[in-house]
Design brief:
The protein has 212 residues and is α+β, with helices and mostly antiparallel strands. It is built from four helices and 15 strands.
Length: 212
């Protein structure tokens, strides 16, 4: 692992602060990826098994993801896109957590959904995605307020997620790596167009490199 060098980036006089913050976040994420060490999937799984004993402390999970980079050979067989929807590929699963790789073509999205106490951590491995977080004000009638929308580039970490949507609004295909602690087989979907909430069963497009 090489010595980490911080890139200091100051706004030019013609650049507004919002643009500067986006560029600063981009360079920070790139700096993290360049300085992260390669970790084999088996090693990562063993690290997560240890963290599961303490209910996956947020900071320790973040530190693990920030300071390690997946070996491409360990994930290349899971990189499979669909023209119809984003895809979910199961890498590992036990009673405490599961690991997935998800593939997003431009224009594909996960609707507004909740995690009901499940801890979900996500890292962008390729491309960029828009993450929008919401506050659930009431369920009857359904009322959500948008907290923020963020652009996540390579190295961006999200989680533990509560109520949010994820969308590839960019031209490049994207890949994300996910850790679900105490995973559920279904989640609540919040449809702001109809004002309804419904339960959706979660499925996989492949499991352990085999198509479903």
């Amino acid at each position: 692992m090489g010595m980490k060098t911080s890139l200091i980036f100051y706004p030019q006089s013609s650049m507004n602060w919002k643009t500067w913050l986006k560029k600063k976040e981009f360079y920070r994420a790139q700096d993290q990826i360049q300085c992260a060490g390669i970790i084999k999937m088996d090693e990562l799984i063993n690290e997560l098994k240890e963290l599961s004993m303490n209910n996956f402390p947020n900071k320790k999970v973040y530190d693990l993801l920030e300071n390690s980079h997946l070996d491409h050979k360990d994930i290349e067989d899971y990189i499979q896109f669909s023209e119809e929807k984003y895809t979910r590929h199961l890498i590992y699963k036990d009673n405490n957590f599961e690991l997935l790789l998800m593939c997003w073509k431009s224009g594909q999205k996960a609707p507004i959904h909740g995690h009901e106490g499940e801890k979900c951590f996500m890292r962008v491995e390729k491309g960029a995605l828009q993450f929008t977080n919401y506050n659930l004000v009431s369920t009857d009638p359904l009322k959500l307020t948008k907290i923020e929308s963020l652009k996540g580039v390579v190295g961006f970490l999200d989680g533990p997620a509560d109520v949010h949507s994820v969308e590839n609004i960019y031209s490049e295909d994207s890949i994300t790596f996910h850790i679900y602690a105490k995973p559920y087989s279904a989640c609540d979907i919040y449809d702001i167009n109809t004002g309804s909430i419904y339960r959706k069963e979660l499925t996989y497009d492949s499991m352990f490199k085999k198509a479903c």
